[in-house]
Model the fold of this input.
Amino acid sequence: MTLQSNAAPLAPGAAAHDRQPDNARRDAFGRNASGPLAGIVIADFSRVLAGPYCTMLLADMGATVIKVESPSGDETRAWKPPVFDGQSTYYLSINRNKRSIALDFGDPDDIDTARNIAAGADVVIENFKPGGLDRFGLDYASITERNPAVVYASITGFGSAGGAALPGYDLLVQAMSGLMSLTGDPEFPAYRSGVAVFDVITGLHAAIGVLSALHERSQSGRGQRIEVNLMSSALSGMVNQTGGYLLSGNVPTRMGNEHPSIYPYEPLPTADGEIVLAIGNDRQFRTLCNVIAAPELADDPRFSTPPDRSLNRSALRPILQELLAVRTASEWFDIFTEARLPCAPINDVRGGIDFAQRLGLEPVVNVGTGEETIPGVRNPITFSATPASYDLVPPGIDADRGDILQWLQSTPQA
Done:
């Protein structure tokens, strides 16, 4: 069975203009919803980062997300500091626009409730260990018996075959995939990324898979299972580094802030600090040489092409450092920006937010309505007709049990 909602979902093959007007759209709980996924219900059995980040983005787009938690809650609720009003900012950063119900999988009644939620949803997203939901009747095969049109997304660390028993932590994948071997100064030990980058990439891949499967279902009426894992997302996400190895046999190594194929493409010192240059072609390099009053460098055979500059970077670097030392990083940023050269100051996170605000990107939004609001980072996708919304603050544990149970009573169950 498929969800019966107030949102007038498209029948398979229906044209987009057959939808009700945006101002008539509601989510599964009757709340006004303007996003492109209004009317879609997601049963979210995921926790920590990859899954919750995926479902938050989909919730911003109007989907109704029911966050199913254990009675102790998502682990990130306890990941402190930092905190906001005593709550973990980690949890708050990735769980807006959701509704929470706490269910104990040791309780048969709670398991029945979980099954009913999955049976009434358009999408199920989970990140249990492979096979971990089988004994509860929440696996794909069991759910499709009642809900054959469901889109069921599984997120794991290393897939459901040979890596099924391995714990799926981002740090482990950074180590095993090779990313840590690429991160940091070559004279020092390997470093992890400052963000759980593969959790984020996997969450994005999961969102792409869900949206693609929903589109296919709108044409055929068929649901399907999606599987993503951190290791595969890592190897895909390292793009030119993994591709370079496969195509050339070259095993990349740590180069600090340098790029293996382009130069200058790194932070360089100025009179009072560093500025990042990202010179990717000959036109940009010639412009740089003119701006720093050394036009002859562009015609020097050691530096005249990208491969030459990359090969002879040890000769070019001290020349650039001497020329850049006559001005401050701020002065060079203004000069290079005026010349349309790719450059950047090295900000901290506060500086990054401030810079985005100066550009008019409006990176900070108020999450929630009325007096209960918290700041959050804007969804990075802008829709001209169906904008993202930020109506619900991240829920407390089991905060929406009553509404969710009431929704289940009104939802046909197969």
Notes: The longest helix spans residues 197-220. The chain has two domains: 16-237+383-410, 265-347. The two ends are 6 Å apart (CA to CA). Confidence is low (pLDDT under 50) at residues 1-23.
